[in-house]
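We modelled the chain as a single entity of 126 amino acids. Its sequence is:
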Amino acid sequence: MKNAFLHGTLTETVFAAQPTGFEDTAHPGYVCRLNKSLYGLKQAPRAWYSRFTTYLLSLGFVNAKSDTSLFVYHRGIDTVYLLLYVDDIVLTASSQAVLRCTISALQREFSMKDLGELHHFLGMRV
């Protein structure tokens, strides 16, 4: 997922120094109040995970008890497994139709690119 941490919603008030090159010369001591998460922010991973998890749960996924990064969707004969590692997703489903439907639902909510079949993940060849 491209820029995953930028999708996170902050639950607390966070201030940051004015970005280099964008300082307000009339108010050099002012700071910026962040409305969204940024890379490098200590809250960013938690905010992203919370937002992504909330969306998956709204789609009917459940969090696996064995691993908090594994989500399972099961309705009738349809099953989907989604593994989230920071901003990488491994997705598999019981049929191509349910896989395409799941990818479409994720792409409607988040800026994502489907990289096709899994060949490498976390430095391992699959």
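As a brief sanity check on the tokenised model: DSSP finds two helices and eight strands in the chain. Residues 37 and 122 are 24 Å apart (CA to CA).
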